[in-house]
């Protein structure tokens, strides 16, 4: 989300919301599910990272971030679904177990990550980006948890096309890396 905000040249203020803040009544007024991220844009309060990406692309971007044609939009949506599914339940959960003590089936998270990365490897062997010939919100939705998969014990070295895609995202002009989380002792 922050990469898209920067790419669109939008000013924003990032406010961290640790778990105790997310359980407050004030935060529940923003998102009754107590989840982050939440975007406030004027009168609009919007939760869910993929919904926020769609909103920002449609409100402030151009069709390069979220194509207008049916096929282009569907290809982006497919990857947004993968971000909310396989990316979330694979590399994101594996990282969450290591860094935040998530109680998950770690073997399942690692198996999901391996299936996802094998699929992405095959897909990216034929193209530069996930859904189009240029970066879209699909790439931004999938990037962070794939890039930080090694923090959850998921190796990326077996997937050279995925690693090359990560480098292409990192080469975008507005890119700012997410700090690696130290692995707890």
Overview of the molecule:
This protein has a two-stranded antiparallel sheet with strand order 1-2. The protein has two domains: 2-60, Glutaredoxin (3-Layer(aba) Sandwich), CATH 3.40.30.10; 70-170, Glutathione S-transferase Yfyf (Class Pi), Chain A, domain 2 (Up-down Bundle). It has eight helices and two strands, in the order αααββααααα. The protein has 185 residues and is mainly alpha-helical. It has helices at 2-7, 19-22, 25-30, 49-60, 70-100, 106-124, 137-147, 160-170, and strands at residues 38-41, 44-47. A hairpin with a 2-residue loop joins strand 1 and strand 2. Helices cover 54% and strands 4% of the residues.
Secondary structure blueprint with pairings:
Layout: H1 2-7, H2 19-22, H3 25-30, E1 38-41, E2 44-47, H4 49-60, H5 70-100, H6 106-124, H7 137-147, H8 160-170
Antiparallel strand pairs: 1-2
Count of individual beta strands: 2
Report the span from N to C terminus.
30 Å
The largest sheet has its strands arranged as: 1-2
Order of helices and strands: HHHEEHHHHH
Major sheet? 2 strands, antiparallel
- Global geometry: globular
Q: What fraction, in percent, of the residue positions are helical? A: 40-55%
Roughly what fraction of the amino acids lie in strands? under 5%
The class by helix and strand makeup works out as mainly alpha
CATH architecture annotation of the largest domain: Up-down Bundle
CATH class of the largest domain: Mainly Alpha
Highlighted features:
185 residues; mainly alpha; Glutaredoxin; Glutathione S-transferase Yfyf (Class Pi), Chain A, domain 2; 2 domains; two-stranded antiparallel sheet; 2 strands; 54% helix
């Amino acid at each position: 989300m922050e990469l898209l905000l920067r790419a669109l040249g939008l000013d924003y203020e990032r406010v961290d919301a640790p778990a105790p803040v997310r359980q407050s009544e004030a935060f529940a007024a923003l998102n009754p599910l107590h989840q982050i991220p939440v975007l406030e844009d004027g009168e609009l309060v919007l939760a869910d990272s993929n919904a926020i990406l769609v909103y920002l692309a449609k409100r402030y971007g151009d069709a390069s971030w979220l194509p207008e044609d049916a096929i282009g939009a569907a290809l982006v949506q497919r990857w947004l679904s993968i971000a909310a599914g396989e990316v979330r339940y694979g590399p994101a959960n594996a990282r969450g177990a290591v860094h935040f003590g998530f109680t998950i089936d770690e073997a399942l998270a690692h198996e999901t990550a391996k299936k996802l990365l094998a699929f992405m490897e095959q897909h990216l062997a034929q193209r530069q980006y996930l859904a189009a010939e240029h970066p879209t919100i699909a790439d931004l939705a999938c990037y962070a948890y794939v890039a930080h998969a090694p923090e959850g014990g998921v190796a990326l070295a077996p997937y050279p096309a995925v690693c090359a895609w990560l480098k292409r995202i990192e080469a975008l002009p507005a890119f700012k890396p997410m700090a690696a989380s130290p692995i707890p002792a």
